[in-house]
TrEMBL record:
Keywords: Membrane, Phosphoprotein, Transmembrane, Transmembrane helix
GO cellular component, as recorded: mitochondrion
Gene: TMEM143
Residue intervals passing through the bilayer: 276-297, 303-321
The UniProt record lists the keyword Transmembrane helix: yes
Protein name: Transmembrane protein 143
Organism placement in taxonomy: Eukaryota, Metazoa, Chordata, Craniata, Vertebrata
Region named Disordered: 432-456
Family annotation (InterPro entries): DUF3754 (IPR022227)
Bias (Polar residues) ranges: 437-456
Amino acid sequence: MTVARWLRFQRKGLAMLHVARGVWGSRVRVLPALLGPPRALSSLAAKMGEYRKMWNPKEPRNWAQQYRERFIPFSKEQLLRLLIQEFHSSPAEKAALEEFLAHVEFCTLFHYHEILDRLQALYDPINPDRETLDQPSLTDTQRLSKEQEVLRALEPLLTQANFSPLSEDTLAYALVVHHPQDEVQVTINLDQYIYMHFWALGQRVGQMPQKSSVGSKRGFFTKSPPTERRYFKRVVLAARTKGGHLVLKSFKDTPLEGLEQLLPELKVRTSTLQRALLNLTLIVSGVALFVNVGMVVLSDLKVGTSLLLLFFAVFMGLRASKMFGQRRSAQALDLAHMLYYRSTSNNSELLTALTLRAQSEHAKEALLARSFLARLPGGANRRPQETSQWLQSEVESWLLTQSGCEVNFNGARAVAHLQALTPSIGLYPPRGFPKLDQQTSVTSEIPQATPRSDNP
């Protein structure tokens, strides 16, 4: 090999190396775009693909194991009346129970007020509805970090409020499956979201309340009869889009298949059946128009066939665009009506609503524990674990009889609520009251109800 030939070969090799570096660099630059949604939502996209392959799924897989109802379906006043009627009929017992409930509310008032103060202080820097003076703007990384901190602080409050988190599998089902009676259907681009979380309580199976399902009972030609559906009395949403901010919202009477209607950054879509019916209507009317008018134009005005067909195609295209636009506008209005009636609280106001609900559920659990443990066989001779298990079984059976709802009652947490009450007015804890050991896992997951102090 000559020197000149070797130099040419070396120059070609360097040129190929530069090209390879350029190609590899371009691949590295576009790699994040090819990866799709973040890791937090990648498994959700995979499960959505699994549900798309299923034929007509009716509910999420293993739904009975995924969702466990924990909400006590009575208000404090209703529960108090029921307990008095069944267990505390004498005037002295009635007065004692009412006094106990007042004591519980007094002991938990300052505790939950302090929790609310901490949540609001934590949420204030990222509050999009803040009415005070503007603070220094946060970077997107700082905002995302504070949002995650707020969500972590909300977890124990949602647990005490007896909300059940909806699993990723449930969310995948809701994003893929559309109920046949939902005229309003929406679609989302999963790549636009950084995270989305749902919590729900009060599962019901029955006819949807009318104002919460505007437009969902109207068929294409006639009104279809209402059907029974699975829905939730309350749903809490926490979602964040790229370039957006944390959205905290609460809704009522939301069907399982309608969860995606609550998300931000969605688009109204026309269902396949409606598109087929609209296209069929356009074709039939177009053919009738062409036969009655087009033939006359061809014979009388001597217009060329190609020109007439072009004019007819443009006319039908404009007509189709107008009809589909009007249809989507009507569906968007129906969606706005539904969200108007379903929405209960947003952003900072949701923190207050959740705190009040948690305090109410706390009082109801203590009230049930006080009434049932007074009838505990064996009294203080039972072990703490047996006590909580007995309480859970008895309360669940009683709630099923009174309401017809299967409720997963947390007996250990209810006993812990009683133990945390201060004996300031001499009510609790009574002498010989069974106590839980220090290894109870449930008590460490929730804030215990104590009077206001530096370490609640």
